[in-house]
Specification:
102 residues, 2 strands, mainly alpha, two-stranded parallel ribbon
Length: 102
């Protein structure tokens, strides 16, 4: 956390306490990978291992590759540009600044 946010020790400790207080409200925490689980169950955050669970990575069958063109799938002309974004919508991601003129 300190490496990403470049916080001094006092600010880092304050953020850690806030995160711990918030996460303690839940019976279980679901994480994306082993590193996140190790961080939450390690000495820095001290959550019980039984309360932190890895999530499964999967996609619905409708998201698998199909042999169709974007004209058929999106009802667009073949030369049309398409922008695909997969992530949360937040200011720091810069998504809100994308225009139709890309």
């Amino acid at each position: 956390m300190k490496k990403v946010l470049t916080l001094d020790k006092a600010s880092n400790d304050r953020v850690k306490r806030i995160i711990r207080a918030y996460y303690k409200l839940f019976d279980k925490l679901f994480v994306l990978n082993t590193d996140q689980k190790l961080w939450l169950t390690g000495k820095k955050m001290e959550f019980r291992e039984s309360s932190v669970c890895n999530t499964a990575h999967w996609a619905e069958p409708c998201f698998y590759k199909r042999d169709v063109s974007k004209a058929e799938t999106l009802l667009l002309e073949p030369e049309s540009k398409v922008l695909l974004y997969a992530g949360r919508l937040s200011k720091e991601k810069g998504v809100l600044g994308v225009t139709r003129d890309f």
